[in-house]
Design goal:
The chain has helices at residues 3-17, 19-26, 31-50, 62-86, 89-112, 118-140, 152-177, 182-204, 209-215, 220-246, 248-251, 258-270, 276-293. With 295 residues, the protein is mostly helical.
Length: 295
């Protein structure tokens, strides 16, 4: 196995396992508060890592950096962390990863005017069917592996909506990507998004001193460490290396592997249900993602 292949396997494993600490941490502290803690810490570490490049942001680029930070991280992760706290981690991961290529097509069309051909329309249609199937089985209960909680359907919808915000933010980021060092841009977007998450947590959640104590205690502190070190630092660094060496297409194939890791972790560690209905909906969404990613 080549070094990059080993890095790819590690990235898939790390990004697949990060859904588990979101679920575990959210059982002890409010989910958006957990997200805010992750992104403030990760953003500060990224900017420290960027070193002298930290100020290499043109003045006219700051409005776009702030706007995209609020979409990529504040809006997205407010919904994603809350949604994952309500829904099975494996299904949340599938909805997130499998819709990124589809929502990116839509965002590129609306923002940049890129044409949507027949293949892309097929991807959007198949993805919509897959999402609808997953949502309907959770709503009806009887077709799924087990009847979920009352907020499970809304949790999956929140993850999908957050992913849509992420894709719009990613497309809006493109004009400044070549003008700002990658780590600097990601660091500022992460830190600004983290501050936005602090505001959202203050507006939506009741955070008490006990929650700060819980954040620094077992099992929330290890969960936060995995999210910061594994999800934000190790995973992101490997992804940048693979995009450089392999290109965005091959690096992006993690979207088909990490959800399988998340499903397995959810089933084994949390006893989450995953039956034929979930498998059918997931296959439809992965098929849509494959069509969207096809060159």
């Amino acid at each position: 196995m080549s070094r990059n292949a080993a890095y790819f396997a590690l990235m898939c494993l790390v990004w697949g396992l990060t859904w588990l600490p979101i679920k575990v941490g959210s059982q002890h502290v409010p989910p958006v508060f957990l997200a805010a803690s992750r992104f403030v810490i990760a953003g500060a570490l990224m900017l420290a890592w960027a070193g002298r490049d930290v100020l290499q942001v043109p003045g006219e680029a700051w409005p776009r950096v702030i706007m995209t930070a609020l979409l990529l991280n504040t809006g997205n992760y407010t919904l994603l962390f809350w949604g994952t706290a309500q829904a099975p981690t494996g299904l949340a991961a599938i909805v997130n990863f499998a819709t990124i290529p589809i929502f990116t097509i839509i965002a590129s069309r609306l923002i940049e005017g890129h044409a949507i051909g027949g293949r892309k329309l097929a991807a959007i249609g198949l993805g919509a069917v897959g999402l609808g199937f997953l949502f309907s089985t959770r709503a009806l209960g009887g077709l799924a592996a087990a009847k979920g909680g009352p907020l499970e359907l809304w949790g999956l919808a929140a993850v999908a909506t957050g992913t849509l915000l992420y894709c719009f933010g990613a497309v809006w980021s493109r004009p400044v990507m070549g003008r700002i060092p990658t780590l600097t841009l990601a660091g500022w977007q992460t830190l600004i998004g983290g501050f936005g998450l602090c505001l959202m947590s203050g507006l939506l959640e009741t955070v008490t001193p006990a929650h700060f104590s819980a954040l620094l205690s077992w099992p929330t502190l290890p969960a936060l460490a995995v999210l910061v070190v594994g999800g934000s630092l190790i995973g992101f660094t490997i992804y940048l290396r693979l995009v450089r060496d392999w290109g965005a297409f091959r690096a992006g194939l993690y979207a088909f592997i990490s959800p399988a890791v998340a499903v397995a972790a959810g089933v084994l560690a949390l006893g989450e249900p995953f039956g034929p209905a979930e498998a059918i909906g997931s296959l439809l969404m992965f098929g849509a993602a494959a069509i969207a990613l096809k060159r």
